[in-house]
Amino acid sequence: MSDRTIPADGIGMHLYTMREALADDYAGTLKRLAEIGYRTVGVSGRFGHSAAEIRSFADDAGLRIVLEHVGYNRLADDWDGALADVQALGGKWIVVPSLPTELHTPEGFREAAAAFTVAGRAAREAGLQLLFHNHGHDFAEVDGQVLFDILLDEVEPELLGFELDLYWVVNGGKDPVDYFRDHPGRFPALHVKDMAADGSFEDVGAGRLDFPAMFALAERGGVEQWLVEHDAPADPWVTAARSYRSLAEMRY
């Protein structure tokens, strides 16, 4: 471990964590996140607001939107519109958060890889990059083949990157360090989500994941954004403050 710290403008909040607060007061929630210290956010859910409105809320709060989660079905249903919305948000990445259950087979992942190749090319032409966000089941091994690795191997790096969810990698029995080392530059964004002793979700720094060991190879992995996430926070504001402090003070 060295004395490296995460760049201040690399610490963000994935807004799924704050969904209850956003539903009540989107603009006010963004301002409060900025007051905690966050510089960036990933959008997940609009709560009735347009992309332009959310961009204005972020601008007013002094936050930069770096990405938006967009359902897999949008690849075939108005992908151009989805790309235009991420452009309007000011984002850099358009993220597919999961694959439909029926695609959770090697054949399904190959089908997704082909779709991502086409969608990734369109994203690149729009000045964006397509990313895929993983869950634990994406690391299932079928006939000696890890499903997630099909996407890594079959889509060109410039057409598909990954928003690596560190909790779900470990939940799936893999080590993020191996992915950073073996696939340099493929992981521009992270979901930093900690794991409690019983395997449930925990605030960053309060669980058992060895983030400094993971982040030691983050540069090789191409990481630009460390986005806090907690899927089921008891109090999202406590989670937001604790997790920000942990990342801001972390040495790796």
From TrEMBL:
Cross-referenced SUPFAM superfamilies: Xylose isomerase-like
Stored Pfam families: AP_endonuc_2
Name the keywords, alphabetized.
Isomerase
Q: Which residues form the Xylose isomerase-like TIM barrel domain?
A: 31-241
Which Gene Ontology molecular-function terms are recorded? isomerase activity
Keyword RNA-binding assigned: no
Q: Under what name is this protein listed? A: Sugar phosphate isomerase/epimerase
* Source organism phylogeny: Bacteria, Bacillati, Actinomycetota, Actinomycetes, Propionibacteriales
